[in-house]
Amino acid sequence: MSTAPKPIALPVTAVTCLEDRAHIERAVELDLEAGIQRLRLGPVSALAVDRTLHAELTAAHPATVLDVRMVRGWTPRGPLPTTDDPALRHRVHSLEEERLALGQLRDRLRARLDLLGRLAADLLREIGEGAGSGQTEGPRWARELDRVDGAREAYGEQLRTAEARLTALAAELAQAQHALDVSDEQPAELVGHIELTVEAAAAGPARLRLSHLTPCALWRPAYRAVLDGDSLTLETDAMVWQRTGEDWSDVRLTLSTARSALATDPPRLGEDRLTLKERTAAERRTVDVEVREEEIGDLGPAPVLGLPGVDDGGEARVLNAPAPVSVPSDGRAHRVPLSAFTTAASSEYACSPEVSPLVTQVVRFDNLSGHALLAGPVDLVRGSGFSGRGTLDFTAPGTSVELAFGSRDDYRVVRHAEESRDTAGLTQRTVVTRTVRLYLSRFSAPGETTDQVVVLRERIPVSEVSAVEVRLRRDACSPAPDGLDAEGIARWDLTLPPGGRRTVTLVYELSASAKVAGL
Description:
By secondary structure, this protein is an alpha+beta fold. It folds into 4 domains: 12-77 and 188-214, Beta Barrel (Elongation Factor Tu (Ef-tu), domain 3); 87-183, Helix Hairpins, CATH 1.10.287; 218-260 and 308-400, no CATH class; 411-517, no CATH class. The chain is built from 3 helices and 27 strands. The chain has helices at 87-132, 138-183, 281-285, and strands at 12-17, 22-32, 35-44, 54-59, 63-76, 188-200, 204-214, 217-228, 231-242, 248-256, 287-288, 318-320, 325-327, 334-344, 346-351, 359-366, 376-382, 385-392, 400-408, 411-423, 430-442, 452-459, 468-472, 483-484, 489-496, 501-512, 516-517. The strands form 6 sheets. Strands 1, 2, 4, 7, 10, 12 and 13 form a 7-stranded mixed sheet that branches. Strand 24 and strand 25 (489-496) form a beta hairpin. Helix 1 runs antiparallel to helix 2 (138-183). It is elongated, with a radius of gyration of 42 Å.
């Protein structure tokens, strides 16, 4: 059983791009012969994972795959440069050709000078013999000598020019060859082929489907949000990188968040003993508390440094490209459109002075894409064009989405906080009073007449123990908050006319008993 010397092309037809690798599917029509035969398919990417190779045959007659394996080999570069070679290799090739041509010219010039030297010697011998026998042909002898000397000078000058050029060419070629040796990191290319052993009951056509995993491919979600008045258009794209060694041309692209690299073994369980002990007298007399800041929990994993993974909300998601795509193997980012929708959007100007003194335009809309929006960067576009880049968190289908479309330069917020501490005489309770004053200003352009509502948010502490009480003093607040949620976020809806100014005062008390320590 021999292998066909000419390999059969095995193109890529479908790709499932995972978080850090890709699942490649290939298909080809084969013309099988009766009996057992070995076929050579490819070339394919040499990065294909051998243990993931899987081949299936579909035919009208019985046909079975007996063995499938990957064979790799180094393919050296040819002696002549190709269009894919760098300009430096073409330069070396042209210098070598010029050196060969100059060497041949030098040999021809030396042969001609040697012939002219023998001709001059024969002419001088003829002159001597003629003068000895009494012949006087002075004009002819002079003419012949002048013609030979002129030719020897002309060819001698050409020989000196050729030798000087050869010397300079040798130095230039040595430098170019050294530069090529330094820059040429891969003198040969590693190419993979698939060797397939099949058995067919009868001769006839069959369809082969082969799949495998390959590294050096990944994808991340990206978005483009266009705000036009009260409507917003959100385009969902996929940024695809691949350096597998072969291009993906007109393939069906599927994007998945499945993490096949994670181990499937359950974690080891360690022993965790819980013990009880009696509290000391000092611990019974005091309650230790501390003030800490916690971020309000949200769905999805914590952010990480570097290129983040795909946040899929804990469930594997699959997205399909609506049309065949082509992704070259250049390691660069290629944008693949996935979906787009237009929906009504509500907008507000919001500010949280404790976090940032900027007033930001926040847009809210519903996710009508039909699939989950994975966490990723968003290009923000308004009526004036590209306005910046934001971040979109994981959003389930049909739920509300919030996007910040940048800050407004015509607003200014200044925050001042004061704190006073007092102790009641009878109860010995410690009362901490905190006063927060917010100064909001609007700088309007000439001719602007419309009022603008700014949503101002400020937080107050939330107590987790009964020994500490937090009370909002609405009588001292000016104006009173329009709302206070369970997380302690107070909200004011302030209407500012052009050039208007508002002052907001927030007062709250922290009351603790005498046995509380750490407040």
